[in-house]
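Person: At home tonight, work slowly through the protein below, taking as long as you need, and write a paragraph about the fold.
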Amino acid sequence: MDPQPLLIFAQELRKSLRGFLIALPLLSVAIFLLSPHLLRLLQERLAGKLYFFSVAEPFLAHAKLSLAAACLLLAPWLLFVLLRAAASPFKVSGLFVTVMVVATTLLFYIGAAFCFFVTLPFGIKFLLGFSSAELQPVISIDKFVQFTVLFILAFGLVFELPVTMVFLGKTGLCSRKSFQRSRRYAILLIAMIAAVLTPTPDVVNMALMAVPLYLLYESGIVIMILMRIP
């Protein structure tokens, strides 16, 4: 394998990430002031009280939530940096990179919103359904924040599937025909991803992620056909 594209990618990424790595902690500190409101918004998914079990736990939970919110807000910048660095060895046009950035940003936020409004409430309701008079939930604020932000960010990332497929096809790293031939393996992989990323193991919640992911896979193939990517 020719190491030159990887070298170009690493050099471009190193130059472009400096500004992002400076902006991320600064924005996190600014958002920290609003973190109680963000936590209240997340807690509405739970419809219950949160507790803490160490002196530093509330502070750390708010800090993690602030960092996750900063990542969500800076997602377009990070996606632009990654796409520009990935495209630099292949000499693709600036217009293509711009279109990819817009598409990845929209899909990322759609995936995050889908998790927040659809999957997360169903998952939390299912898990808390195992409580009883003898078994009452006492939910840690830190664990709850980790649980919610992990799935919101994960859903945002996996919804990038069609853009990733188009990018691989455009750069010649993977052909459209290979995606069409690999549908069976794609279905298996999507089912595995859904089983890992959904907060509950039941079929309904897995389907809430697996079905959109497969539709995104097929849409990636359709887009490649429309763009005449072989």
Remarks:
- The radius of gyration is 20 Å.
